[in-house]
Amino acid sequence: MKTNAFLNNDTQKLEESLALFLKEFKPLFEDFFTSLCTKFDPTIEAHSAKEMAIALTQSLLNTQDAPLLYEKIFLALRQDHPSIDFVIQKSMVYVLEHSVIFAQTHSIPLNVELLCERLYQLIDSLALHANALSLQSDAVIDYTDVMGKMPSKAFQSDLSNDVLLSPRYEMMNIFQQMLVENQKNIYCLNLYEGIPISSEATVVEILDANVTFQMSPLQEIAMLLENQAFLVKNSYFPNHLKADIVHIAFKTNHVTLTNFRYVQSMPALQREGVRVYPSKTSNIALYQSDALYLNGILHDISTKGLSILSNEKEGLHAGEDVLLEFELQDEKDSINGKVVNIISYTNSFRYCIHIVPNEGISRMIANYIEQREKEITAKLQMELQKYA
């Protein structure tokens, strides 16, 4: 258990670290708070929001003595601005994220737990004033008396130490670092009719849990059509990421993503070659031991493998050798293969098969894939024109 001397020493170090941090961070925080405040409540004027931001930064070094801040919060609440509580809490998270990055960049010791407590104190102090105000009392506030009478909380102190250990918090910190360092080594990946669409992306803005990227128009339209976003792991992220799409702005080539989560694997990156969907329905027959085993349709094909969709399941297993017959370019072809996986859907099965074509069929498949790539890319470009 720490003694008072140790606690006082930790507090002193925090004060010194905060002073250095706020000296550099103050203009950035004022701009962030002002932008966030006016965005969520356009009735608040920018100069008023900035004054509140200045008061907040002053209060971070002393949460017990902030009459200027309280006065402005009271004013905002009296003018019925319910978004103030949200803006203040999010701005505190913003302070926490940037202070950690600042400490790491400048090799400054920072007690994150103590800083969280400091932010708690500030928000809780604001909660006391806000809830006292909700009692419609203009008298001098007796904090001890108010604590037991609050009918509702205008401010919810939902900052938690747990967030510091969560993957989501780690991801947002990494994105913030990439933004500060103007890093561009992150790649998006989408599939459109089997064709992988991948391009470089740059972080341009972070707001709460949303990250806005700048990327190629082709990537944007692929994301829109697939209705999901994938980011390939790099030197910053240990795993691939999947995210939900918030907004796509084709005029600026900006895509805003949220709800980032790690995915352990990305099958599209494990393929040996490009796998395309056929341009028209192609029936395919699967034989085993010279007997017809099942009928289906060709789902996709590459130079190394293909998959079959069928509603038939008669006990075929991975590892078994098969013979395939199908038409790809108006002529029937036969290929030997081995079943590598069987995927079960609600009313059908997909048989994934590694193929061993002869030289002639291999060349034919390669030419077909090249042709389909051009057709699919052209189709993607046509879709893009709808949003240009």
From TrEMBL:
- List the InterPro entries hit by this protein, alphabetically: PilZ_domain
A GO MF label: cyclic-di-GMP binding
Domain annotation PilZ: ranges: 271-369
Pfam family example for this protein? Answer: PilZ
Q: What is this protein called?
A: PilZ domain-containing protein
